[in-house]
C-alpha cells in the first residue's frame, strides 16, 4: 500500500464511531489534492476497509460492526423496519449493552404501544441470552397508587416487620422480586419526588433499603423499563432523568405510515377471526374510517373499536361462516372523508404467502449497482440496463399483496395521474413493480442527490410526471419515497417523449376544468404535453399564482412557454408568473379543447416556438399575446463557447450577490450567435449585459464583455458601472474576488500534481495580500491571476525539489529589501511544507512585482 493511501486509511480509522468526513475535508487535513484523496478512498471502499455514505457531498467512515441478527421478538413488531426502526435499534442496544443493559424510558400518548414494546424488550433479552429464560417480568402501574406515596414505596422496596401499622411480617418489594429480570414502571411520572430519589439511588449503587430499615442494604440486579404519557422534563426530576440513558418516543396511530396502519388493522381483525373462528369481510367504507381514526386512545382505541364492531357483526351473522362489517357496525360519532383503500378479507385458516426474499434481495442489489453506474455515466445503454433490472423484480410480486387496501390506493392514483392525466396509457404494467418497491421501502445505497441531478438533466419530463404521482401517494418512508420517484422516472422515460422542447400550462376556473382538458389532450397526443392547474370558483388567485410559480420554476423554459387560460385571470396571472420564465411566452386567453389540441400537436412536432406563436396570432380569433425575449424580467446572460459548464458556475457566483429581481441565465453559445446573426434585438430588451468567453466582434444593440476582461482594471470598472445601481461597493469587490478565485482555481487545478488547490489557493491569497499591504498596492485581476498561478506552482515545485539551487544575489537595494520581506511573508509556508524558498525563486517573484513597487 502506498504511503499516501495508508495516510488516508489511518485518518479514516481515527474517526470516532459514527462519525463521517467528506473528501474535501479529508484532503485539507492531509494536505493532498482532492482528486488523489478521492482515488484512494474509492480503492479503500473496494478493499472493504472503509465505508462510502451516499449523501451530498459523499461522506466516508470506518467500517462498522455488522448489524446484530434480527430476532423474532422485534421482527413481529409492526413498523420494525419503518416508523419504529430507530426505536427498536435503541431497545436492542439497551438490552445487549454489557454488563447489565441500559435502563429505558418509553414516552408516547395513551394506547400507542408502550406496554407492548416493553414486553417485547423482555422477550428479546431472553432470546439473546442476556437474562435467564425464566427471568421475572414485573409490572407496576404507578398511577394506581399515586395518592399514597408510602404504599408505593413499600411495594417497590419492601418493608420490615413493624415498619408501619399492619406490617406484621417482613415483605420483599418488587425490586427484589424482579432480581435477574425486568421491572416495568408504567405511568412513572406518578412517582413522588422522594420515591424517584430512592430509585435513582438504587440505579447508581444497585442497593436499596426496605422501609423501616436504614442499616441493612438490600441488593438486586434489575433492568428498568419506564413509561409515561407526559413530557419527561416536566414531570420527572432532572437527577432521575440523567440515570435513564435510552429514551424512546412512540408516534400516535394517525402519524404512522398508512401501510403500518393497514397492517395493524389486518392484524387486529385476524386476531378476532381466530377467536370466533370465522372469516371476516370488512367493507371499504369501514377500512377508510379505521385508517383515518384520530383518537387520543390510539391503537388501544382502535383495538376496542374493532372488537366491538366484530361483536355487533357477529350477532347479525351468527349462523354464517363469514361475518361482514359495515359502517353501521362502527359506533363512531363522526366519519372522515372517504379514501378508497379497498376491502379487507381475513381468513383464520389461510397462511400468508411466502416471497423468496433472498433472490429478491439480490435483484434489489442489482438495481442499486446499475443506478450507481448510471449516475456516473449516463448513456442509453446504462439507462436500458437500469430499466431491465427494475422490471426483473416483476416475478417476485405476490398476487395476494395486490389485494391489499394500500395497493388499491396506489393503483387508483397511478391510473388517474400517470395513465389519464399525463396520457401515458400504456404504462399499467409498471404499476405492480413500483408498488413492490414502495411497500418494501426500497432505498438504493447510492448517491441519491447525484442521481436526481442526472435524471432531472436528461429526463426532466419523465421526472416531472413521476414527482406528480408521488406528491399524491401517502409517504411510507421519506427517503424511499424520493428514491422510488427517480426509479419511476427511469421506467417512464421509455414512454415520455423527452425531445419535446416547449412547456405548456392550462389554468381554468372550476373544480377540474383544466385537468379534464389536460387529460383529453395528453391522451389524444399519446404523451405528456400539457400541465394543468384547476381554480375552484372560491379559490384565492394568490394560491393559484403560488402553485403556478412553483410548477414553472421546476421547468426549463428557455425554449418557450405556452400559457392557456380562461377569461378573467390573464392580467393578474401573467404579471405574477412572467418573472419565472427564461424564454419566449405565448398567452392564449381562451382555453378550449380544440385550441389546446391544435397547440399540443404542434408542440409534439417540435415546431419552432415563433412559428407556433405567429400561427396562433393569425388563426385564432381569440385574444393571443406573444412575449419575446430571453426572459420577461431583467436579466444578465452568461455564455461560454466550450459549453454551459463554466457559464453555469459563473452564473451561480453572480446569483449570490444580485437582487431577486435580476435573473442570471446561462445560455448556449450557438443560441446567442443565432440571435445576433438574425439581429433579433427584441430578445435582449430586458438584458442588462452579456458576458462571454470570447469577444463579440459584430455590431450589437446590447452591452457585452469578455469574461476575462473583468480581470483587468478597465473591464473591472465597466462591470462596476453596470452593476453599481444594484450592488454596494463591498459586494462588487467581493464578487470580483470570488470570480478571480474561480478562474485561479480552474487554472491551478489543471496544473498542480498533488497539492490541494482549495488549500493552496487560500494560502496564495494571504501571501498576495501581504505584498499588497506592505507596498500599498491595488493589483487588478489579471495581475493577481498571474501571481496566484506562479506562487502556487512555485510552492509545489519547491516541495518536489524541482527548482534551481543556484543562489541569486540581489542587484539593488530595492531588490534586497524585496528578498527580505519575501522571506518574512513565506515563513509560515516554509514551516508548514518543510521547504525553503530559494533566492532564485525570489528573483522570479521580483521580476513579477518590480513594475508595481
Automatic annotation (TrEMBL):
CDD domains, per database record: AAA
GO BP annotations, alphabetical order: phosphoenolpyruvate-dependent sugar phosphotransferase system; regulation of DNA-templated transcription
Organism superkingdom: Bacteria
Molecular-function GO term, any one: DNA binding
PROSITE patterns for the chain: PRD_2, PTS_EIIA_TYPE_4, SIGMA54_INTERACT_4
Domain PRD: 755-853
UniProt keyword DNA-binding present: yes
GO cellular component, one term: membrane
Keyword terms: ATP-binding, DNA-binding, Nucleotide-binding, Transferase
A Pfam family assignment: Sigma54_activat
Protein name as it appears in the record: DNA translocase FtsK
Originating organism: Lactobacillus kullabergensis
UniProt cross-references to Gene3D superfamilies, sorted A to Z: P-loop containing nucleotide triphosphate hydrolases, Phosphotransferase system, mannose-type IIA component, PRD domain, Winged helix-like DNA-binding domain superfamily/Winged helix DNA-binding domain
Residue ranges of every copy of the PTS EIIA type-4 domain listed in the record: 501-634
Positions of the Sigma-54 factor interaction domain: 77-311
Amino acid at each position: 500500500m502506498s504511503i499516501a493511501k495508508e495516510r488516508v486509511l489511518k485518518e479514516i480509522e481515527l474517526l470516532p464511531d459514527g462519525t463521517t468526513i467528506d473528501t474535501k475535508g479529508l484532503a485539507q487535513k492531509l494536505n493532498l489534492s482532492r482528486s488523489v484523496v478521492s482515488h484512494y478512498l474509492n480503492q479503500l471502499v473496494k478493499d472493504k476497509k472503509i465505508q462510502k455514505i451516499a449523501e451530498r457531498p459523499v461522506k466516508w467512515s470506518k467500517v462498522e460492526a455488522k448489524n446484530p441478527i434480527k430476532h423474532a421478538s422485534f421482527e413481529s413488531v409492526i413498523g420494525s423496519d419503518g416508523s419504529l426502526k430507530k426505536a427498536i435499534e435503541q431497545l436492542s442496544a439497551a438490552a445487549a449493552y454489557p454488563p447489565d443493559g441500559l435502563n429505558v424510558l418509553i414516552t408516547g400518548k395513551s394506547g400507542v404501544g408502550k406496554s407492548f414494546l416493553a414486553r417485547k424488550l423482555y422477550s428479546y433479552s431472553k432470546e439473546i441470552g442476556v437474562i435467564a429464560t425464566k427471568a421475572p417480568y414485573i409490572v407496576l402501574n404507578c398511577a394506581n397508587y399515586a395518592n399514597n406515596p408510602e404504599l408505593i414505596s413499600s411495594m417497590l422496596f419492601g418493608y420490615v416487620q413493624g415498619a408501619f401499622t399492619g406490617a406484621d411480617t417482613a415483605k420483599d418489594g418488587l425490586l427484589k422480586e424482579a432480581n435477574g429480570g425486568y421491572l416495568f414502571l408504567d405511568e412513572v411520572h406518578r412517582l413522588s419526588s422522594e420515591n424517584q430519589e430512592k430509585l435513582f439511588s438504587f440505579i447508581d449503587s444497585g442497593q436499596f433499603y426496605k422501609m423501616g430499615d436504614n442499616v441493612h442494604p438490600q441488593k438486586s440486579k434489575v433492568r428498568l423499563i419506564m413509561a409515561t404519557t407526559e413530557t419527561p422534563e416536566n414531570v420527572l426530576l432532572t437527577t432521575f432523568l440523567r440515570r435513564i440513558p435510552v429514551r424512546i418516543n412512540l408516534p400516535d396511530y394517525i402519524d404512522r405510515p398508512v401501510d403500518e396502519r393497514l397492517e395493524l388493522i389486518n392484524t387486529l381483525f385476524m386476531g378476532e377471526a381466530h377467536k370466533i373462528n370465522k372469516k371476516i369481510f370488512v367493507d371499504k367504507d369501514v377500512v377508510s374510517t379505521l385508517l383515518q381514526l384520530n383518537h387520543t386512545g390510539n391503537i388501544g382505541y382502535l383495538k376496542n373499536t374493532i372488537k366491538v364492531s366484530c361483536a355487533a357483526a357477529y350477532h347479525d351473522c351468527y349462523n354464517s361462516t363469514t361475518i361482514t362489517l359495515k359502517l353501521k357496525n362502527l359506533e363512531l360519532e363522526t366519519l372522515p372523508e372517504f379514501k378508497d383503500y379497498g376491502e379487507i378479507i381475513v381468513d383464520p385458516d389461510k397462511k400468508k404467502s411466502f416471497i423468496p426474499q433472498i433472490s429478491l434481495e439480490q435483484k434489489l442489489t442489482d438495481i442499486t449497482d446499475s443506478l450507481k453506474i448510471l449516475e456516473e455515466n449516463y448513456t442509453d445503454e446504462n439507462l436500458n440496463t437500469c430499466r431491465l433490472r427494475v422490471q426483473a423484480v416483476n416475478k417476485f410480486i405476490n398476487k395476494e399483496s395486490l389485494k391489499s387496501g394500500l395497493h388499491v390506493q396506489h393503483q387508483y392514483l397511478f391510473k388517474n395521474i400517470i395513465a389519464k392525466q399525463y396520457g401515458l396509457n400504456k404504462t399499467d404494467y409498471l404499476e405492480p413493480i413500483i408498488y413492490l418497491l414502495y411497500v418494501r421501502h426500497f432505498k438504493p445505497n447510492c448517491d441519491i442527490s447525484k442521481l436526481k441531478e442526472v435524471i432531472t438533466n436528461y429526463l426532466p419530463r419523465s421526472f416531472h410526471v413521476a414527482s406528480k404521482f408521488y406528491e399524491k401517494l401517502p409517504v411510507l418512508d421519506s427517503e424511499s419515497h424520493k428514491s422510488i420517484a427517480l426509479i419511476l422516472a427511469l421506467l417512464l422515460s421509455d414512454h415520455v417523449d423527452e425531445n419535446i422542447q416547449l412547456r405548456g400550462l392550462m389554468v381554468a376556473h372550476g373544480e377540474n376544468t383544466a385537468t379534464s382538458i389536460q387529460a383529453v389532450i395528453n391522451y389524444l397526443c399519446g404523451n405528456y404535453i400539457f400541465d394543468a392547474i384547476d381554480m375552484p370558483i372560491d379559490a384565492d388567485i394568490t394560491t393559484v399564482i403560488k402553485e403556478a410559480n412553483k410548477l414553472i420554476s421546476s421547468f426549463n423554459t428557455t425554449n418557450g412557454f405556452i400559457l392557456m387560460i380562461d377569461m378573467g385571470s390573464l392580467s393578474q396571472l401573467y404579471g405574477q408568473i412572467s418573472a419565472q420564465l427564461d424564454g419566449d411566452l405565448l398567452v392564449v386567453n381562451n382555453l378550449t379543447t380544440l385550441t389546446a389540441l391544435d397547440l399540443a400537436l404542434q408542440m409534439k412536432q417540435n415546431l419552432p416556438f415563433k412559428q407556433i406563436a405567429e400561427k396562433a396570432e393569425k388563426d385564432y380569433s381569440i385574444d393571443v399575446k406573444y412575449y419575446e425575449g430571453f426572459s420577461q424580467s431583467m436579466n444578465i446572460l452568461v455564455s461560454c463557447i466550450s459549453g454551459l459548464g463554466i457559464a453555469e458556475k459563473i452564473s451561480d457566483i453572480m446569483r449570490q450577490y444580485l437582487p431577486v429581481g435580476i435573473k442570471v441565465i446561462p445560455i448556449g453559445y450557438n443560441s446567442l450567435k443565432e440571435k445576433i446573426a438574425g439581429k433579433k434585438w427584441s430578445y435582449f430588451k430586458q438584458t442588462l449585459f452579456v458576458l462571454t468567453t470570447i469577444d463579440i466582434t459584430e455590431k450589437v444593440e446590447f452591452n457585452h464583455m469578455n469574461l476575462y476582461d473583468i480581470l483587468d482594471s478597465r473591464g473591472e470598472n465597466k462591470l462596476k458601472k453596470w452593476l453599481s445601481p444594484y450592488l454596494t461597493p463591498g459586494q462588487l469587490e467581493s464578487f470580483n474576488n470570488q470570480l478571480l478565485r474561480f478562474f485561479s482555481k480552474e487554472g491551478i487545478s489543471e496544473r498542480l500534481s498533488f497539492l490541494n488547490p482549495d488549500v493552496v489557493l487560500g494560502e496564495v491569497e494571504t501571501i498576495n495580500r501581504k505584498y499588497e499591504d506592505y507596498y500599498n498596492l491595488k493589483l487588478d485581476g489579471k495581475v493577481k491571476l498571474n501571481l496566484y498561478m506562479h506562487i502556487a506552482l512555485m510552492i509545489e515545485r519547491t516541495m518536489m525539489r524541482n527548482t534551481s539551487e543556484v543562489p541569486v544575489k540581489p542587484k539593488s537595494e530595492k531588490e534586497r529589501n524585496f528578498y527580505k520581506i519575501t522571506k518574512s511573508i513565506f515563513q509560515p509556508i516554509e514551516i508548514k511544507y518543510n521547504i525553503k524558498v530559494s533566492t532564485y525563486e525570489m528573483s522570479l517573484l521580483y521580476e513579477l512585482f518590480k513594475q508595481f513597487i
